[in-house]
Amino acid sequence: MRELVYYAAVTLDGFIAGPDGEFDAFLVEGDHMEGINARFADTLPTVAAEALGIDQRREVFDTVLMGWNTYTVGGLDSPYRHLRQIVFSRTRTADAENLEVTAEDPVSVVRRLKQEEGAGIWLCGGGALAAVLADEIDRLVLKRQPLLFGAGIPLFGDRPYRPERFDAVETVAYGSGVVVTELQRRRAAT
């Protein structure tokens, strides 16, 4: 069965963007970029990967999920056209290559996607969508940035207090201060 992976950059104080969606303070240069781009090439916008000569094979992810605000942040009609892109919005529409905008319940969509053949499903953002899908997330890959925002969009939006355990799979620390941690959901024994 396919996994839903929430792969995101996050500040030390738990924000994936500033109060107005700002993300320009995140480190996009440094020794962490080579490792991240090699392992997670599918998460680069298609035009960026093409410009950098990075091959996107759809081996890690073949589908990306986004809320409307995350979709519009880069200003591209089809930011990840190498992937199947599903954008959740109850009020907006868009038409672009490999892009589907849906008002369908995100949990229903994810459960259906998990039953299909394919590579991983990348939850790109935002925090409100992550809060809705929290129980469906199988893995977290967090690129912890050596930054404090003080305010902004939380990693899991307004998710209510309900502790859930994830186990560390791998952690890689870079000289830039970025630490990439992969965690897997701890499932109850059956």
Automatic annotation (TrEMBL):
Transmembrane segments: none annotated. Gene3D superfamilies: Dihydrofolate Reductase, subunit A. Residues 4-180 form the Bacterial bifunctional deaminase-reductase C-terminal domain. InterPro entries: DHFR-like_dom_sf (IPR024072), RibDG_C (IPR002734), Riboflavin_Biosynth_HTPR (IPR050765). Pfam families: RibD_C. This is Dihydrofolate reductase.
